[in-house]
Write a structure and sequence with these properties.
It is found in: Cell membrane. The protein is an all-alpha fold. It starts with 7 loop residues before the first helix and ends in an 18-residue tail after the last helix. Helix 11 packs parallel to helix 17 and helix 12 packs antiparallel against helix 17. 46% of the residues are buried. 71% of the residues lie in helices and 0% in strands. The protein has one domain: Orthogonal Bundle (Proton glutamate symport protein). It contains 17 helices and no strands.
């Protein structure tokens, strides 16, 4: 088989496995190649804010004002349902398997950095709204950029009913196309870059770093698998699409999410495959997927709920019904303003753990495996976003089911 015939998904998988083997064989020496992976992540991330900004404006700007409210309400409802489901599965997994009983308190050490004081609810909500959109773009504040883009796109949709601003809409659309082409160009570097990234991570941590928390990772992986199976089965039935085609269309999205642990890096692949392989219309995918990246972090909700239950077990704290509800609500709220780059899970924990009255030093327990738990988090995040887009597209009669036909049965062009 010639190399150019091997798909990108297969190349990335080979790169991931090769990177792990390289890291184990060469140890500290392998950390020197990690810079190649870091450069790759930066090249992807440099265009993400622009991609989100333009995609949301174009998606809203091309919608009929009457359809805008209905589509937004459906998207928000799906986000809420999937996030609550994920948080509940995380909570239930912690209560069932009791991972906190397998960890000793003397393993907890300070993370070496003090956590910022927890923001009040008013401050958290206020920080969603930008005072200067250029400052928000420059700092990469995803939530603030999305808020501005939603308002701008809504105004553009209302003002352009007679085509007065079609030139501006065309300009935004062309900018989006070029941005996607730029990201896809960078994605050609993915196999070797991800190999370097995995080699560096494995070499820096070593295989033994996972042993004390192997049970936690196993439980979290099982919970993620349960969530994905349930979600894919339901969406397959709801949207009336074959589950085999659904899994096939999601395969490259999952691989990229799993190996990079970044929803931001996976977003361009999501937007491309949602349209090309999963039949979602451009108008739906460009609205739902960027919003989902910032507002629908199913994997984080599950992770936070499981971690909170584990910590209460570790400190022998008995959870009441009110405490269980509090954990679920905190897990859901933590999805608002989620950091969409690797390491976002620890940031969320430094905010939520003190809120529950638990020592901030507890976060250290998860610092060493954050990259590995981030693999499961990101997969749950992107699959939740993409299946929401499929469900919304099915509701809006904007789903092409021909995309789910296998290559052997699909009509030739």
């Amino acid at each position: 088989m010639k190399m150019h015939r091997v798909g990108l998904t297969t190349q990335i998988t080979i790169g991931m496995v090769g990177g792990i083997v390289f890291g184990l064989l060469f140890g500290p020496l392998a950390t020197t190649v990690k810079i190649l992976g870091d450069i790759f992540l930066r090249l992807i991330q440099m265009a993400v804010i622009l991609l989100i900004f333009g995609a949301v404006i174009e998606a809203l700007g091309t919608l009929n004002p009457q359809d805008l409210g209905k589509l937004g309400a459906k998207t928000g409802l799906w986000f809420l349902m999937t996030t609550l489901l994920a948080a509940t599965i995380g909570l239930g997994s912690g209560l069932l398997f009791k991972p906190g009983l397998a960890v000793h308190l003397d393993q907890l050490q300070p993370v070496g950095a003090t956590a910022k004081a927890t923001s009040s609810l008013n401050e958290t909500i206020l920080n969603f709204f930008p005072t200067n959109i250029f400052a928000s773009l420059a700092s990469g504040n995803v939530i603030q950029v999305i808020v501005f883009a939603i308002l701008f796109g809504t105004v553009l949709s209302r003002a352009n009913q007679r085509g007065q601003f079609s030139g501006l809409l065309t300009l935004v659309s062309q900018l989006n196309q070029l941005t996607v082409k730029l990201v896809m160009l960078v994605m050609k570097l993915a196999p070797i870059s991800i190999a370097a990234l995995m080699a560096g991570i494995v070499a820096a941590n070593g295989s033994q770093v996972l042993l004390p928390l192997f049970q936690f990772l196993g439980i979290y992986g099982l919970a993620t698998a349960l969530f994905l199976v349930g979600l894919l089965t339901f969406v397959s039935w709801y949207a009336k699409v074959p589950i085999v085609g659904l899994v096939r269309g999601l395969s490259q999205i999952i691989i990229v999410a799993f190996t990079t642990t970044s929803s931001a890096v996976a977003l361009p692949v999501e937007m491309r495959d949602a349209q090309a392989k999963l039949g979602v219309s451009k108008s739906v995918s460009q609205l739902v997927l960027p919003l989902g990246m910032a507002l629908n972090s199913n994997g984080l909700a599950m992770y936070v709920a499981l971690v909170c239950v584990m910590l209460t077990q570790l400190y022998h704290i008995q959870l009441t019904g009110v405490g269980l509800i509090q954990i679920v609500l905190l897990a859901v709220l933590s999805c608002l303003g989620t950091v969409v780059v690797p390491g976002g899970g620890l940031v969320a924990l430094t905010i939520i753990v003190p809120t529950l009255g638990l020592p901030i030093s507890s976060v250290a327990l998860f610092a060493g495996i954050d990259w590995f738990s981030g693999m499961f988090r990101t997969v749950a995040n992107v699959v939740g976003d993409t299946t929401t887009a499929i469900a919304v597209a099915a509701d809006e009669h904007a789903l092409s089911r021909d995309a789910y036909k296998s290559p052997a049965t699909a009509p030739k062009s």
